[in-house]
Design goal:
Layout (H helix, E strand, L loop, with lengths): L11 H14 L13 E5 L11 H19 L3 E5 L1 E2 L3 H16 L8 H16 L1 H8 L10 E2 L3 H16 L3 E11 L4 E3 L4 E16 L6 E6 L10 E4 L13 E3 L6 E6 L11 E4 L5 H10 L30 H10 L3 E14 L7 E10 L2 H12 L4 E3 L2 H11 L4 E2 L1 E2 L9 E3 L5 E3 L3 H12 L6 E2 L3 E2 L1 H5 L2 H4 L8 H6 L2 E7 L3 H16 L4 E7 L2 E3 L15 H8 L1 H11 L6 E3 L1 H23 L16 H22 L3 H30 L3 H22 L4 H11 L7
Parallel strand pairs: 1-2, 3-4, 9-11, 15-23, 22-23, 24-25
Antiparallel strand pairs: 5-6, 5-14, 7-8, 7-13, 9-12, 10-11, 14-16, 17-21, 18-19, 18-20
Helix pairs in contact: 1-22, 9-10, 9-15, 16-17, 17-18, 17-20, 18-20, 19-20, 19-21, 20-21, 21-22
């Protein structure tokens, strides 16, 4: 083992930059199709172009990189497919704010085309900064294959899928309740809704029977919705209300009468046992209203303000600001029984910070119930396996409760729906306007003007196709042929339903194959006290700051060491600092070997060792390699780290190297000294290979210093 005469202390800031540029220059991350070798492939969960590297990204990317480097070293053709997501709402929001701040321009002050141009300009300048941040972590995807969800070929595939699903009747337009962001003026997905626990109130409101002093008491957290009540529902088995069923009550503060109905959905034990049903403004009530076919009364507009279907004094008032006014009137007219202080969850838009309103509006939907059954069948056949296995039950539960997916968004940035409307609102779905006009001419028997749908697709629609589109599908590319289905998906539990399930459904629908064979669900990172990290709590840990301070290797080693299956990670800066000391120990061992001329000669054979101490360390090294290999295969990264730490620190550094020091100083036998030099160097070189997937920078800094080229990357 030839060692350069360079024994200064390891400088992570200097070495990490130099090494990463060298890796890229040599094309070490590029996939190379070789029919004589087995493949290993993964798709990178595409980070938003608006994003910065946060600690969740750091964990996710570290685990993926460990797997890729491990399988490269084991002779596989590795494809780690990278990419970024256009993040429709998030990106548009960022650009809108920048325009207003820097140019004093509002989005609607300029044309849609000019605004989209501004978004592309922003994306090209700063939108891909997260890619460079991921590189700082040492991640090794095939950057030459970097994809973006709005790339032209991806967009063509998205349109292809939309058109086919529409033709088959799975995509349709309907008027349903959606999560409505009153600030951003668009429907949003459940994932973009943040449930915040906060102090609230339960209002117990008296609904008086028609021409009677008798009443039912209804408990609600949203008294402002009472103007939209269509009925009061009670359980048919509730003895308290049997005599009330079929009668009518007056909506408080109005003269409007609504019926009292019986429905087994109502929980006798919950609240007062009497439920005000407001189908146009509550998701659960919407289901009841649909089932019972009762009328819907809409009382809010798209801005969250009362419309003309309420008493005059409330028209135009914001629904939230009007609450205290309504409560005061309920008190005044004897309709308020009591107010109870509670803590409850309130839905907020994660981008706008506005309270989300269930809003009845016309949107585009995808019926995925049949797709869900097919996806579940694949998992039950073990064509896809979740790790930890407990997430399989969660997947089944979510899929069994699946609802039609609202796929349209009322924003400008994204995949505009390939939909055109004729003069009578006849729908034409084609990949371009030319084909739509041709079909319209055939339908109307004359030339007509068409109007394009302004909505764009939910970002998750294109992301659901990510395993397909990144490999060139629907074209039959070599990469798709070789690497699909992919081997592993590494992701967090919070998007099993929103992303993982949708990828499975779309892949099975269009290819009859699963998109990946295994799904590893990594833990959630919390602070050292076990609390969820949040800006409001001030306990956010910035991975880039940790990398600057301690290096990427200690952070990676720490994250892997804490990634126990089924357990949340409690992370502190102290953890990283301690593991930086471990990395330093490896460097010091390297310095010791150099100082004592420890090198592995070409003719060195392990089986010829004679000294017990050398035989012992090699045996333990082999046990370590075997254990680490098995644990990586089983996604037990923390157990792999335990083995590495135990062997490296306790056996090799603290025991073996210390013993070697004594032997070198005390033994005169040159043959035995040569054996020690060979063995210590051999074990250290093999150890570098073992730890490389976890700490790639320092392992390569040492390895490149000793061997002219890397055989294991």
């Amino acid at each position: 083992m030839k060692i350069k005469n360079n024994l200064k202390n390891f400088s992570h800031l200097e070495s990490e930059k130099k090494l990463y540029l060298d890796w890229e220059k040599k094309g070490l991350f590029s996939c190379k199709i070789d029919p004589t070798k087995k493949n290993f492939s993964m798709i990178m969960p595409p980070p938003n172009v608006t994003g910065n590297l946060h600690i969740g990204h750091a964990l996710n990317m570290t685990i993926q990189d460990i797997l890729c480097r491990f399988w490269r070293m084991n002779g596989r053709n590795v494809l780690w497919q990278p990419g970024t997501d256009h993040a429709g709402i998030a990106t548009q929001n960022v650009v809108e704010k920048n325009l207003l701040k820097n140019e004093k321009i509002k989005k609607n002050d300029i044309s849609k085309e000019k605004f989209i141009a501004k978004v592309w300009e922003w994306k090209n300048i700063s939108g891909n900064k997260i890619i460079n941040q991921i590189k700082r972590l040492g991640a090794s995807p095939d950057w030459k294959r970097l994809k973006f969800t709005l790339d032209s070929d991806v967009s063509e595939a998205v349109n292809y899928v939309f058109i086919n699903l529409y033709k088959e009747g799975f995509i349709y337009k309907d008027r349903r309740l959606v999560n409505w962001d009153t600030k951003l003026q668009t429907a949003i997905s459940d994932l973009e809704v943040e449930q915040k626990e906060q102090n609230g109130e339960f209002f117990y409101i008296k609904y008086f029977l028609e021409n009677s002093k008798n009443h039912l008491t209804v408990a609600t957290t949203r008294p402002e919705t009472l103007f939209g009540d269509c009925c009061v529902a009670v359980n048919p088995n509730d003895s308290r209300y049997k005599d009330y069923i079929g009668k009518t009550v007056k909506i408080p503060l109005t003269s409007k009468l609504i019926p009292i109905i019986a429905d087994s959905y109502v929980d006798i034990e919950k609240g007062t046992g009497a439920l005000k049903v407001t189908p146009a403004h509550d998701f659960n009530d919407f289901k009841i209203g649909k089932k019972l076919k009762i009328p819907f009364y809409e009382i809010f507009d798209k801005y969250g303000k009362f419309n003309d279907n309420v008493p005059d004094e409330f028209k135009g008032l914001d629904r939230l600001l009007a609450r205290s006014h309504i409560v005061n009137n309920l008190k005044k007219y004897g309709n308020l029984e009591k107010i109870e202080k509670i803590i409850h969850s309130v839905p907020y838009g994660d981008r706008s910070g506005a309270v989300i309103e269930p809003y009845l509006t016309e949107q585009w939907f995808l019926d995925v119930k049949g797709f869900a059954k097919d996806a579940v069948a694949k998992v039950k056949k073990k064509e896809i396996e979740f790790s930890p296995k407990s997430w399989t039950k969660v997947f089944y539960t979510w899929m069994s409760q699946i609802e039609p997916w609202c796929i349209s968004r009322q924003i400008w940035w994204g995949h505009q729906l390939p939909v055109w409307y004729g003069p009578d609102n006849k729908v034409f779905v084609f990949e371009n306007e030319t084909k739509a006009l041709k079909e319209a001419h055939k339908y109307y028997k004359k030339k007509v003007d068409l109007t394009r749908e302004t909505d764009v697709l939910d970002t998750w629609f294109s992301s659901a196709l990510w395993p397909l589109t990144t490999l060139g599908w629907p074209n039959k590319t070599n990469e798709f042929k070789e690497y699909f289905p992919t081997d592993v998906l590494v992701t967090g539990f919070d998007i099993i339903f929103f992303w993982v399930s949708r990828m499975i459904m779309q892949s099975v629908k269009f290819t009859k194959k699963v998109p990946f064979k295994k799904v590893y669900i990594h833990p959630l990172i919390r602070d050292k006290f076990g609390q969820k990290m949040s800006k409001s709590k001030g306990n956010i840990i910035d991975p880039l700051e940790l990398i600057d301070k301690y290096g990427a290797d200690p952070l990676r080693f720490t994250l892997a060491s804490l990634a126990a299956q089924g357990k949340d990670i409690k992370l502190s800066e102290e953890n990283v600092k301690l593991n930086r000391n471990f990395i330093t120990k490896i460097w010091n061992s390297y310095k010791f070997l150099h100082m004592n001329n420890c090198k592995t000669e070409k003719n060195f054979v392990v089986n010829t060792l004679t000294m017990d101490i050398n035989i012992w360390i090699v045996k333990n090294l082999n046990d370590c390699i075997s254990s680490v290999t098995e644990n990586i295969r089983k996604f037990r990264f923390n157990d792999a780290i335990k083995e590495i730490y135990s062997f490296t620190k306790n056996m090799y550094c603290d025991w073996y190297i210390e013993a070697v020091k004594a032997f070198i100083n005390e033994i005169d036998d040159k043959i035995l000294i040569k054996e020690i030099q060979n063995c210590s160097s051999y074990c250290f070189t093999e150890l570098l290979k073992v730890i490389h997937p976890f700490v790639p920078f320092i392992s390569d800094e040492i390895y490149f210093s000793n061997i002219s080229h890397s055989k294991y990357l």
